[in-house]
From TrEMBL:
Keywords for the protein's UniProt record, in alphabetical order: ATP-binding, Kinase, Membrane, Mitochondrion, Mitochondrion inner membrane, Nucleotide-binding, Transferase, Transit peptide
Gene: CKMT2
Subcellular location: Mitochondrion inner membrane
GO molecular-function terms, A-Z: ATP binding; creatine kinase activity
Any GO BP: phosphocreatine biosynthetic process
Organism: Scleropages formosus (Asian bonytongue)
Positions annotated to bind ATP: 124-128, 187, 237, 293-297, 321-326
Statement: the UniProt record of this protein carries the keyword DNA damage: no
Protein name: Creatine kinase S-type, mitochondrial
Sequence ranges assigned to domain Phosphagen kinase C-terminal in this UniProt record: 121-368
Amino acid sequence: GKRDIDSPPVSSSADYPDLRKHNNCMASALTPAIYGRLRDKTTPYNWTLDQSIQTGVDNPGHPFIKTVGMVAGDEESYEVFADLFDPVIKERHNGYDPRTMKHPTDLDSSKITSGMFDERYVLSSRVRTGRSIRGLSLPPACSRSERREVERVVVQALAGLKGDLAGRYYSLGDMTEHEQQRLIDDHFLFDKPVSPLLTCAGMARLCFFRLDLDTLILRHNNEKNFLVWINEEDHTRVISMEKGGNMKRVFERFCRGLKEVERLIMERGWEFMWNERLGYILTCPSNLGTGLRAGVHIRLPNLGKDPRFSKILENLRLQKRGTGGVDTAAVGDTFDISNLDRLGKSEVELVQLVVDGVNYLIECEKRLERGQDIRIPPPLPQFKK
């Protein structure tokens, strides 16, 4: 709450959070000096440093992933609080320096090679990204009227999607339990909005006060392989997905659909948040740049138990999750494998990295099946520090 005008100011050291037991990028980067410098600053939308870091203060760490520990409330957060965001971005994005580097964009899916996986191992393939509408607060800071404005802008634009991208809408507020369960089973909706990383940033999908069911919209095409979420963790989430191992086709549909969504939004006088240093601006710094996560659900009964598995993934710049989303453990021998990086490499580069990496994992699995040895590949290079 706000201080009484006549009370003496509270020193920044008295407000400084206790992060001694925390394992996230924000906790690693925050110092009393940075906190003192930024604590009383606000963005034009009145977003503060304390609001940005609350998710990282409330969540000391994550069992599988070193989390970022902070979110942006608007596009300007990344500038106003750059003294903290920049080192967090540099740690999370493999040494990418947002002060000196420029982010590339490339949505030419014809450049992908070897994008068809062995379907004895790869069960499904998907590519997703997020986009934010310039001039509106990001979801952690969105008022209900702003969420309705996001919905209005995007729903009107998506009405222009034709052909295999045309489809139907669901409002989560109008859904029956049965319909919600069907979406969970199809991996369109993750089971319960329980990621604590989202909840305390004000963004739990179904049960937290900041995100209303009546403004959370899912649109999918008739084939259910091109989806747009509206008003989830980001203003929009664009997803291309299908069963099987044809990542090249999934990425082709993703690029075509995403370009069409952007064209339709710009036709209505809006644009996506973007700058040449950070690429596309999204709520979580982990998604800056491309915002792209290209992933597969893959069966690895032998490699999944091998003590070298984690190191192989690390060197290939890949990340493993459970198949139910960021906060779930792997079920049996099936893993969700995706690119670790988002920023500093183009969409084409990241999808090719996943294609090459997943093919390497499949080759390892086949070698282990035959009783042969595998090797840990050399690490992919970091950005020059």
